[in-house]
Each structure stands twice: as structure tokens, then as C-alpha cells.
Amino acid sequence: MTEDGAKTASDDPVWMTSAMLKAYSHPLRRQILRLISRREFLRAADIAAELDVPANSASFHLRALAEAGLIEEAPDKARDRRDRVWTGRKGALNVGGPENPVADEALGVAVVAALAEDHQELIRRVVAWTPEYVAGRTTEVHAAFTQRTIRLTEAEFDDVMVKVNEVLNAADEAHDDADPAGRYWQMDLIAADDTI
């Protein structure tokens, strides 16, 4: 939302198309998307150097992400007409659901499985860091693990998730990018009810 309370395009849920799902299912492309979200604007050469992949490979995957609508060019950040600078789309992406089922069920399931793998990697990183913190060898906070059980209706749960996203969006917009103490935090929220 804008300051006057008007809704913006990033406030509306974005349902992934088959092209988005296919592009997102590739692990290198998910790495590229995470890198772009951290740096906001990147060139293929920047991505190639950061991820240690050939520049032509980075360019190929950037084109696939752009064709799927997951990233777009930022010509105002380019040095000249030949310079291609990329930025990510704003807002959360949704895989599918009863109101917006995916056209390719197997592809939708593959993307959810890939997201679960990414989540497991995040958990591995948190677990590897935890002994340093709980033993008092470091006071810096680099991760958090919160677990809570709460009884809600499905509508109440949906409302909570909307509010969580609103809080995250507000924090992102309020952050001063020039603050040297700023760090990127990957947040994976996972929830399941007691029926699965």
C-alpha cells in the first residue's frame, strides 16, 4: 500500500503461471532470484562472478527468468544501450490453490519440493550456527527459530498470513539501504495444521 492507504500491485497475490513454475523449478534460477532480491539490480557478469558460473550461463538463465515474468530489465540503471541490468518483481508469489489451480500439477508439486529443499538448507545453516550462540561464544544474532502452536479457523489463519506479509513489506520499505548495519535475512515461514 502507499502512504495514503491505496493498494499497489505488490499488495495483490500473484499466482505463478506455468512459465513461472518451470523457470522457478531450476536451482540456479532460484539462486539468481535470491541474489537479485539482495542486490536489487544486477548484470549477468555480476551474477556470474557471485555464483561462479559462466557469464553465458547467467545470461541464459536471466533470459528464462525474464520470459517467465519473474524479473525485468531496469534500463534506467544501465550504463548505455547495450548494458542489461535486471531487477526482480515485487511481492510474494503463490504456487496455486483451489481458486487458482496450477495448469501442470506435477510442475507445481516439483516447485513446492524445490522450495522444501531450499528450506532444509536454511535449517541446516541455522543448526550449524546455533552452538556458537547457545554456548555464548558469540552474541551476534544470525538466526532465529520460533515455534508456536495456535488454534485458528482457516479464515483466521489466512488473515494472519496477510498481516505477516504486511508487516514484512512495511519493514522492508522502512529500512534505510544506506545503513551499514543492514544484513539480508532469509525468512522461511512454515505452517501446518494437525490434519496433515
Describe this structure in words.
With 196 residues, this protein is mainly α. The chain has a single domain, classed as Orthogonal Bundle (Arc Repressor Mutant, subunit A). Helices cover 47% and strands 5% of the residues. The chain has six helices and four strands, in the order βααααβββαα. Strands 1-4 form a two-stranded parallel ribbon. Helix 3 packs across helix 4. The radius of gyration is 19 Å and the shape is globular. The two termini are 34 Å apart. Mean pLDDT is 87; it is low at 1-10.
Topology overview:
Layout: E1 14-15, H1 18-24, H2 27-39, H3 44-51, H4 55-67, E2 71-73, E3 86-88, E4 93-94, H5 105-134, H6 154-174
Q: Please, what is the oligomeric state?
A: single chain
CATH class: Mainly Alpha
Task: Flag low-confidence runs.
Answer: 1-10
Number of domains: 1
**3D shape:** globular
